[in-house]
Here is the input.
Amino acid sequence: MTIVDTREQQTLEPVLDQHLRHHLETIEALRDRLPDITRWGERLADRLLHGQRLLAAGNGGSAAEAQHLTAELVGRFDGERRPFSALSLHAESSSLTAIGNDYGYDQVFARQVLAHARAGDILMLFSTSGKSPNLLAAAEAARRVGATTWALTGAGPNALCLECDEHIALPGTGAAVQEAQLVMLHLLCRVFDARVHSHDAAAHAPSSAGRRGSTSEGGRS
Here is the structure.
């Protein structure tokens, strides 16, 4: 039994090693997009601090990534802060199945975008292929209501990148892209939290006028 296990392990090791090499190659490509991730995180924080909302969607594993992001914003990332409005469109199961049944699966996200999104909101779409019809329809619906669209996809150019306002397209296998997208959304959350904390600190800092007033009143007494 031990001999069989050892042989299986020897057979699998090259496969696992290749998986890790693909992962690292895509992560290196993600490193090149750090300026874009920083810009997105700051813009997302600025929008949500002013009452806008994040909508997110994806299919399969990409749906899990999208919901991971919204959970970090409504809950918290790795430090205490206020909650922010973020919705995963694929998580609304009754709406999803009703729309799919009545209008077709291509419309399951688009109709929710038309219902929930407002001008200035951000719609973030996760995909490895960049060609899912329901995500393309969602991007088009967001444009109709004036929402900003961001796409995270596999290698570009692809249809979803072209349909959205901005995109981050990463080369690699589907698994490597999804793994890098998880890292990317954590980086986005880190920038987001830093921006929120900076905003809150500035809002609670005493103004120079207030400090001068306190000094002046102290002198009169």
